[in-house]
Amino acid sequence: MMMLAADHIDGLGAILGPQGLLSQPADMASYESGARYDGGRAAFVARPASTEAVSQVVAYCVSHSIALVPQSGNTGLVGGSTPDDSGMQGVLSLDRLRSTFELDIDNRSLCVDAGFRLSEINARLEPYGLFFPIDLGADPMAGGMVATNTGGTRFLRFGDVRRNTLGLKLVLGDKSGTVLDCGAGLRKDNSGPDWKQLFIGTGGAFGIVTECTFNLERLPKQTATAYLVPRGGEDALLLLSEMEERAGTYLNAFEGMSGQAIRHALAHAPALRNPFPGGDIPAYVILVELSRSWAPRAGEQSLDAVLEEILADIWELPGGPLLDAFIGAPSEMWALRHALSEGAKSAGNVVGLDLSFRRGEVMRFRERMAVLLAAEFPQVEISDFGHIGDGGVHFNLVVPRSPDGSVDVELAARLRTYVTRIAVEEHDGSYSAEHGLGRRNQHFYDHYTPAKLKQMAAQFRQVTSPGAVGAVHL
Amino acid sequence: MMMLAADHIDGLGAILGPQGLLSQPADMASYESGARYDGGRAAFVARPASTEAVSQVVAYCVSHSIALVPQSGNTGLVGGSTPDDSGMQGVLSLDRLRSTFELDIDNRSLCVDAGFRLSEINARLEPYGLFFPIDLGADPMAGGMVATNTGGTRFLRFGDVRRNTLGLKLVLGDKSGTVLDCGAGLRKDNSGPDWKQLFIGTGGAFGIVTECTFNLERLPKQTATAYLVPRGGEDALLLLSEMEERAGTYLNAFEGMSGQAIRHALAHAPALRNPFPGGDIPAYVILVELSRSWAPRAGEQSLDAVLEEILADIWELPGGPLLDAFIGAPSEMWALRHALSEGAKSAGNVVGLDLSFRRGEVMRFRERMAVLLAAEFPQVEISDFGHIGDGGVHFNLVVPRSPDGSVDVELAARLRTYVTRIAVEEHDGSYSAEHGLGRRNQHFYDHYTPAKLKQMAAQFRQVTSPGAVGAVHL
């Protein structure tokens, strides 16, 4: 077992002070494992409380060839924020970067340190009627949301973190820990290459995000939701197009839930009511949400009434693409949607794939996979759900647990490779829709990225982060 | 006078055929001058008709150290698409790149060659109820819109070209004219750095856009417009915030027009009716537009009625920020807005600055500049208008024409430098909001860009475009 020389611990301790550096196993444990995957072992956990301190830590580590893995909320799913098993990588936690929180109401923007959690940000913004429009099951910190370019369930309306990022402050992984300011919160600025874009979604490989300027949106004040049951896969796409045509920018979300995923969720969370008449769960269900940012006005149709009218119109479409529809309370309808992920896990070992396609391709892919997997891996159950409105699908495969509870690692790897190959090579899809890059998908990056793009990354790293920063190697 | 060796003309002619290469002065003239600035002199104009031919031309030119300036619609304002005066640069026109036009209705996206004009794209999309949501006075081609990251009057609702670009095909400026595919039209893809972002808004300096995949939006089917007269500059910001609060995503545009700009437009275009009672033009007027993408539904308030109600509510706000308001026909209201630019030019020599600020800063900047310019440059008149909703302002300065019609080039340069310095250094603004980078603002790039960012650009150019491609040097 290798260990980092004790004088490095002393050197970093001198920079960070006693509160800022952890090196005892018990203190480091929570920084070593991620939310949904096995972690590794850290040489130390550095917890700088300012951009300047981040810069000093990076400068020290790059100068001494110590590898660093930046970590903020550590809620990621792809191994992007935890150290490997070597015990030689330091974790650079951003969880004490919590000073700057500057709301610019006129600009509808927020400049915030990387260590604030999404829930905190939105709780603080609520009194102003504003929010950061990324909607997730998890509760990440600002820095990690940028590093993974998080999407979420309202992507269709508000876009991803990239679209909502107006500026970044970064510490580059070079020997001086260069601090870089990219963007001053302007909504339009073409005075040079938009460099901040390369730091979004790249897991810290080019530099560490310490401060973000985000676009804010007005909080919804009226919401209406419904479950739609399409006749088949192509009908789901038609319903998407019809909803966009008729609901326009009211449309917040168009989320698909497979019947299997719903069954698992209901079995796992008995408090959830089965919303389907007679308990018969359809093969596929779509959750649509409409919202308005203004309070109801006198003389204005309620949003529920608007939704009802739209569904009545769609009901009459030739071919009957809509088999059934239910308008219901948003909180109840979303509760089922948010229980899908845990539901699958309760049913077995989950091999989760975060895929995306052109929108027309997503239903074709899942229907084809159902046939292929039944033939090739009959023991595996598909329990997928996803963001049909933007072509994303969480393609979860449930493998029955062995009696001794062990996980068949080899089968999981085969499944990942098999499904990813078909998604990427035969359906022009992406193996990383919205969970970002990490150790988990490093080999897919290595395999599928054209040589020229790898060369561009290597060249760009030379001038930004020649040091070993980040869990992923671009 | 230098000239390019005749055997290079022969070499390029062999690649391009007789239709594809222009070298006679009369044929080249229209490619040598831009829309609103003096042009230069071209060594030749290459007009390849396919990405492969672009690649061959670039490979030939880079290998023989011939500089190339890519040009598409040539409607830009900053000298980004025309050659310099040396007569040694070739123009690489994309105007024959007009084959691919692939509409993906399910994905709401369009894959289109760089040589299609915005007006053509939208005319072809209209039967499908879709459009590319960039709204401009000019009629650029797809490639140039990407190279400048064009904004326009509906930015507030639909964003810039960057936000609406899902993929690019590029030819890099290296010795092999490497063809690069960035993005396959996916709406979410985090399988690596989003390289296409660096080719957006950089005027071809890193590579030449030959094909674009754009996001499309549904065409508006209901529109309502009004002129608002704010009491003062801060009130304009308050009106913006109130409109966003009450109109939400209906709000398409929030455009500011100075009284001076309106006066010039009315004087220049007598067919325009003075819309203000008694003919008294207010100091500042805001054009707001609301739209919906669906046809009017039975039982639904008309959009005019919604706008009227919103304005009635705003009318009652304490402090009376709204001095006056007029609802009118969209075509008539926009006609005045679109006449402002020509109006200013009819009044004298225009020194045009394309600035942007955080939204709260834009009105403060223009009020401060009114005082400063009156003291420093009393002969100059401000005739500004702009996209207040996204912090952009076309800060046009009108210098009276000298009796002999000559332009005081030295005064124009002093004005540009003076205003830009205050905008950038004292109001955190950008000297290039939405017109892109070109020869016109090269010196501002050189002056204001931090050394580290210049180093990043140089490094990135080494791996993408080591040859001399583009009018701007990053």
UniProtKB/TrEMBL annotation, chains A, B:
Transmembrane segments: none annotated. The keyword Flavoprotein applies. Pfam families: FAD-oxidase_C, FAD_binding_4. Gene3D superfamilies: 3.30.465.10, 3.30.70.2190, 3.30.70.2740, Uridine Diphospho-n-acetylenolpyruvylglucosamine Reductase, domain 2. The keyword Methyltransferase does not apply. InterPro entries: FAD-bd_oxidored_4_C (IPR004113), FAD-bd_PCMH (IPR016166), FAD-bd_PCMH-like_sf (IPR036318), FAD-bd_PCMH_sub1 (IPR016167), FAD-bd_PCMH_sub2 (IPR016169), FAD-linked_Oxase-like_C (IPR016164), FAD-oxidored/transferase_4 (IPR051264), Oxid_FAD_bind_N (IPR006094). Residues 37-219 form the FAD-binding PCMH-type domain. Keywords: FAD, Flavoprotein. PROSITE patterns: FAD_PCMH (PS51387). This is FAD/FMN-containing dehydrogenase. It comes from Aminobacter niigataensis.
